[in-house]
Design brief:
- Two copies of one chain form a homodimer.
- Chain A is an alpha/beta fold and 435 residues long.
- Chain A has 14 helices and 13 strands.
- In chain A, helix 9 links the parallel strand 5 and strand 6.
- In chain A, helix 5 runs parallel beside helix 11.
- The longest helix of chain A has 30 residues.
Chain lengths: 435, 435
């Protein structure tokens, strides 16, 4: 039945494609228009970044903003990163090896070793941020019309990569009432079709902050084995976990070597987003060989930033623990302040550094825009990320916003006061009352 | 007729796709194999990089190599690049804006201004090397099965990107006898079908060194307008032109604003390959808007390297002239040495820093491998790039190699002596005579 419906979909897509070609030629000839690809037309502007031009314009008018919208840590990038780059002795910045410079691969091995996880050097490929890592992995696993299961709400840029690859995202709904934990194995299995190639998750999760339990990990393992699925896990928030919740990497699951693919990055743990250094780690040698071809085609990840990243991955694990403590304190400040705001609900995050918040507004996107355009207290306002695009059905998250707690407590409290005031004022605006 | 054959191809591809899905499910179920995508399986290892593991192994045995295979300049990266990075005052390396940091966009505008070319700030997008630039542009222009014309031999990694996008490369054959200049307009037009979306060229050309004449530029302009095609021009070797051949950017062509897309990078002109900073410049605002979405999805290009690149793009144009003089001297050394080797033919390059060489061997790839594995003079050997993958039909270039003159004259002469000896010895090996 599923296979038949699959073929049915392909037939329709084929007919659309033929029709499109004929029509696009006609349009081109008629209007002399330089067309862009249908592939790129279906992409949306990033909900996290599309307000940027308006924000820049408002800043020029003297307005200031506290940014809750981007997961850009404010903490210092460890000095060893800068030192390593300054100590670079060459007088030429050459291409790095396509798979990464050997000292960095070694440092990443060491990082996993601290977690009791063993990867061989040929089981790691360095990438330009976790963005490239996700794109490479999905490119190597999926053909057009293949399907990937992702718990939703999800990290929105992932979906943009899937669309570029013509891969179908099947969202597995999760709910604030469960703190966004996974549904049952049976529920998840209803989303699996013959075209399902992989499950993709972020652990700890962005935007929900969910840390998957042992039970959930074992369940995902069982599903992966039973249905021959890859288990691709974005672990860039590893170690940023609260309330002493036990947590481990999916790479530590046994008997799953051919299935598990770990995505990592220095961006979040080491407050080094702009370094654009990430990694893919997997014991599936066949897959890694294929990903290696993608890495060769783009030549290399940036060389100096790789040298800096060696120092970051070599930092003792206690650093990450201390970092998590800082974020835990901020989380508590944010959650407490949010609980104090009438009409909203927050699911308390177990890890990462985001709060997903239910607002009382029909369109949180309109609220976000209003905050940038119209709201201010002494010329200061806030930027929040509307959550609708974190869902395969935008309606599910239309009323939600994501807030990143990437500021010190003083800024955070100031921003949350602004949010409280903004919600109050916007409630009036919604009711048609002038403020 | 062409449209019919096109639809015919799509029908076949559709049937193959359905058959493949059914079969792949059966295979998966039967053998529990974790499969990779068909898309990635069709990619080849880069001919420029696939010998790397063998070379590394040989180096460990004490063998040394002179590398002619990679376009990795040996010249010093200008000190201002390192200084700019060292002068970075922040204590956190943040994401850069997705479209690039404003000072870099301004510096790139200035670089074009020196050539009398005007780009507005919203007509430039910073990328992670020209690799990402080519990928973004082709992604934004082409859908699966669309076609792009590329003069062949071509820059091989481009084809890898096309395959990832399911875009069809149509090679326009060019020949050593014409110094790889373009055929007539009529000849080029025979390759155009309703699915042709763009022409893509490298100017000056890699691997042929061809600098396109005014006549060729005007011809390409005429074709682009007549057939509503994008003209995507990789100009990373701009300014590296010899024999005082007149040359200008395709961006200076008038009445072609919607068609021309320029790809640039700091890699070659400023000997900064590892910086991975490139750019897209186009006055087609609709296209740039779509490319902006791709840029947003991957967040940003590396921040510190962008800061370094500002300094590079701000270097006075006289620097590029001096750089070109250095390469011209090397080109003369290489061409003269090659003319002295029996059995080979070299087309004298007009720009860039490669010589494309006809060898007397049926398989230049086997020769390249033999050089790494078996040939040495006092434990020293050479690495050359076999050219077969620079052609849509590998047979066309099976006997060719590409040599990069990216070493000082002393090293170059030593390497060319080794090449002469290698060709002599391999000729004997081919004849079955022990050496």
């Amino acid at each position: 039945m599923t296979r038949h419906s699959n073929i049915h979909i392909i037939s329709i897509l084929y007919l659309i494609s033929v029709f499109d070609t004929v029509m696009s030629i006609k349009i081109k000839k008629m209007w002399c228009i330089m067309q862009v690809s249908k592939r790129v037309l279906q992409l949306k502007d990033s909900p996290l970044r599309k307000l940027t031009p308006l924000i820049e314009a408002k800043k020029k008018e003297g307005k200031t903003f506290i940014h809750f919208n981007i997961g850009q840590p404010d903490l210092e990038t460890p000095q060893c990163f800068f030192d390593a780059i300054q100590n670079f002795k060459g007088n030429n910045v050459p291409y790095a090896p396509s798979l990464g410079i050997p000292p960095l691969i070694e440092a990443i091995q060491g990082y996993f070793k601290h977690q009791g996880i063993s990867f061989k050097s040929n089981e790691i490929i360095v990438t330009t941020g976790s963005s490239e890592a996700i794109f490479f992995v999905m490119n190597a696993i999926c053909d057009p019309f293949d399907e990937v299961l992702i718990p939703e709400p999800y990290y929105v840029n992932t979906v943009s990569f899937m669309k570029q690859l013509d891969v179908v995202v099947k969202g597995i709904p999760t709910y604030a009432s469960d703190r966004y934990h996974l549904p049952s194995m049976q529920d998840i299995e209803t989303h699996i079709t013959p075209r399902t190639k992989a499950m993709l998750l972020t652990h700890p999760n962005n935007p929900t902050g969910t840390v998957y339990s042992e039970y959930e990990m074992e369940m995902l393992k069982e599903i992966a084995i039973k249905h021959h699925l890859y288990l691709v896990v974005d672990e860039v928030y590893t170690g940023i976990v609260y309330d002493q919740i036990p947590s481990r990497s999916f790479a530590s699951l046994e008997d799953l070597d051919d299935h598990v693919v770990i995505i990592d990055s220095v961006s979040k743990r080491y407050s080094s987003c702009g370094a654009r250094i990430g990694a893919i780690a997997s014991r599936n040698h066949n897959l890694m060989k294929e990903i290696g071809k993608l890495a060769q085609a783009r030549l290399s990840a940036p060389t100096l930033e790789q040298i800096g990243a060696v120092a970051l991955y070599n930092i003792a694990p206690s650093f990450i623990k201390k970092t998590a403590e800082i974020y835990e304190c901020r989380r508590n400040v944010m959650v407490n302040a949010l609980k104090d705001i009438e009409g909203i609900h927050v699911s308390v995050p177990e890890g990462a550094f985001y709060c997903l918040v239910d607002t009382p507004f029909h369109s949180a996107e309109a609220f976000a825009l209003w905050c940038v355009e119209h709201f201010h207290v002494n010329h200061e306002s806030i930027v929040v990320a509307p959550a609708q695009d974190f869902y395969s059905n935008p309606k599910s998250g239309a009323h939600q916003i994501r807030l990143a707690f990437v500021h010190d407590v003083v800024v955070l409290e100031k921003g949350l006061n602004l949010l409280k005031e903004a919600i109050k004022q916007y409630t009036f605006v919604q009711k048609g009352i002038n403020v």
